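User: Hello, can you help with two protein structures?

Assistant: Certainly.
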Amino acid sequence: MKYAKILITLVLVFALSSVASAKKKSEPKKVYAFGVAASFTDSIVYYTPIQLLDEVYTDHNGFLPNRDLYSYQLKNHFEQEMNEQNRICMIYFSTTRKKLEKEQTKLIAKYKKNKNLVIQPLPSENFEFKKPDIGE
């Protein structure tokens, strides 16, 4: 009987902790992001300002789900709005703006080392990331 009480107590503690951790994971977090668009056939590298992605959920590993869709948004902008084909678009994201600013500064400095490249910001009024509509 004593072992049964201990076992039931352990099961209840485990169940309650599982529910609490599941609730914690499903809360939306502020996620900041910026994009970079480069091409092998063009010397201009574009980057977007850091933007806040509202109501975005990160998975249990801290990754941004559907991050490829954000990259495609940037790629589509270049193809449709700016008529620039064959751009390779990447997205960088973080839950802290300061960390992302540091990453952006480091990346821009790396591109600036190559004197043949022109680094050009893409104004926020020209492009803004939108939450992907994936039919959820």
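That covers the first. Now for the second protein you mentioned:
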Amino acid sequence: MPADILDRVLGVAVRGPSAGFSQGVDLLVLEGPAQTRQFFEVTSDPEFLAGERALHGLLPAPVIVLPIGDPRAYVARYAEADKARSSLAGLPAEHWPMPYWLVDASFTVMLLLLAATDEGLGALFFRLHRDPGPLLSALGVPEARQVIGAVALGYETSPGSSDATRSPGSPAHRVRRPIGEVVHRGRW
């Protein structure tokens, strides 16, 4: 993947707002076969990697982005004087009714996906199927950080091949709900 395209996508992703301007979301970018292979080996079941269920375009993706939230950044920010009147002031992370670091990491992912689409990239957010702790530790991620999943970035492997390789239940074959069924004005 060209570095300038990846940098533009990442630049958009990190420009989103964050609760209290805490800026407690980091992106760990894994590039190239050695780094992405290590990611899949540590976070996936061997049966998945060897089987037909391994997604056609996922495993060869040239870039994997891990969005990682830092609860301590939010707790520290909401302990500052200008947040003293917030109901979150002084609360430890485990007592926050809505963990803003996860919300902000999710917003970062949405911006990443939209920017990737604008650049003509394929992008997929997916959950990690194994404990990410060993991978995060091996990659030097500070303790107490929370990864919400991963985003694979890349290009379609060959023109026109994607529809032929997708299962009938694939999102590409599903119809989007009409706006009248999704948007509720004034009441449900």
